[in-house]
Amino acid sequence: MSRVARWFRVHREPGQQDGVRRAMTPVPGDDPAALLAKLRAVAAKVGTTLDEEATCAELTRAAAGHAGGSAAVMRVDGPAVAGYESIAGDADVLPDARWATEVARDMAAPELGGWGEQRVGDPATGRFHAALCVPLATGDRRYGVLVCARDGAPFTDTETEFLALLAERAASHLWHAREHARVSRTAGDLQRALRAEPGRPHPNLDVAVRYLPAGQQALVGGDWCETVRLHFGRTLLVVGDVMGHGVEAAVDMAAYRSDLRALAATDLPPHRVLRQLDALAADLPERRPATCLIARVDPVRGQLTVSGAGHLPPAVIDGEGGTSLLPVSVGPPLGTGFGGYELATYRLAEDQTLLLFTDGLVERRGEDIDRSLDRLAELRFPVTAGVEDILDSVLGRLDARHAEDDVALLAARPRHAAPH
Questions:
Q1: DSSP class of residue 28?
Q2: Cα–Cα distance for residue pair 246/192, rounded to 1 Å
Q3: Residue 53 CB neighbours (<10 A)
């Protein structure tokens, strides 16, 4: 029988034993409906989040308020028993932690029920402290004890069972909090496995990369950057954006990156790499469409070759710190099967910095995309700024950390080093 059902049965049948350590003695004026309403009101303040520490703090605040004294949680993890945690009220009123520890160890055994009580007098002051330990448990899952204490009168049967019900409710929330933490850790491990770092460019190219997933919990999404070394000192720079967010988009992102690395080894020009990526994705109906921009940088010749698949154009920061956008033909997104990608070639001087980015960097709700791109083009930078400084400045000045979409950003500047 559940503790709630037992509680109300006892209040309706005061002479019947309920199977716990003692029968409850109803308090005059107790009304089951009023008690239930009070329990609901107090319990509603416990377990408002999926955070274990917050739940324990809410429990002790509610228990201390109901008992008119102090409350704390003592958690049990196997043979180990922690000290008092989440203390609400005056800590000096709480009983000796050694007594509470012994009670907590006893209650850790699933076959043991009930609770522990203690009443201690102080001869010097003539004051009495009443203490109570109730299990912080639900079913066979035991997390420790809720310890309540106050000056004066001992806890009544009704108060004791009320606090036990409150602790049982909190234990259920603790289980959900731990399950959420476990699932979050698993999701985090998966995301970290998917979040592969870009390859290393040739030494003749300075490259910096930033990635900001949307949302506080995500570690990875559908946006990505990649660098691939080619022959003769050239480097392939890539940014992509898979439709959607979260782990599902990240799985397709990883597939696109894998295909790109394989195709890059064939040394095809950027527009033909896009054509092959599009064909591969179109043959897989379950793969999400994606936009992509590929730039092949040849620092030896000072040449930049670019092709895009439904992606925003790159930007170039000149030797005086000004920013401009490079016109690039917008082909269809990858996965549509339409093909038709075009190539554009530009000069890239040693004092110029190439900036590739996904739409999350510039797009803002309700704002025209042209205005969004203009805000980027209006940025100016110190002539001494390195690629790392430029990325930090762009992210800060465009407030990218509060963007509603994932942000991937790559900056590259030629060194004109000898090819490897």
A1: T
A2: 12
A3: 12
